[in-house]
Amino acid sequence: MNERQRIGALEAMLFAHGEPVELDRLADALHAEPIQTQILLEKLQRQYDERDSGLVLLNFEDRWQMATRPYYGEIVKRILDTRRNAPLSPAALEVLAVIAYNQPVSRSFIEQVRGVDSSSTVTKLLEKGLIEEAGRLDLPGKPVAFRVTDTFLRVFGLGSLADLPPLHDDGPQEAAAEAAAVEDAPEGEQLEMRT
Question: What's the pLDDT score for residue 189?
């Protein structure tokens, strides 16, 4: 196969698979070295970008996935049956933001930042596959840690967490750090820190 045919084969495999595929698996199917396959995938990615294709290649570290370009999301929704998929509630979006910007985090951290019980919201996000358990934190009680998934990145059109928009001043992370500093300060200093 020449280079164009190899790129076409990669495109066909990614289209047919639908989910993220490991680079090594793509290389094996193509009978090529992983570095050669990586170069071909990057060329395909550039081709899509140069012609403003409706498709985009997402790279999740060592995995690749073909997806719809976020710009065309609204048009694509018109043809898909989205009635079954209820939109995310503001509470779910808040929890996702806390996890994405601070992961891995415990449920109690999420609740501390939000100031309300978040158990049901976390459970719903787990069911939707937008977050997953990320082991246990080295804290008293060994609480379960949560992180966002590749599905979260795909749904929000992100290649990685580095693509998240920057936090504004006094965002959730800074507010949580400030709250922790106030709680950890001696009682006489707490009043001064809050003012």
Answer: 40
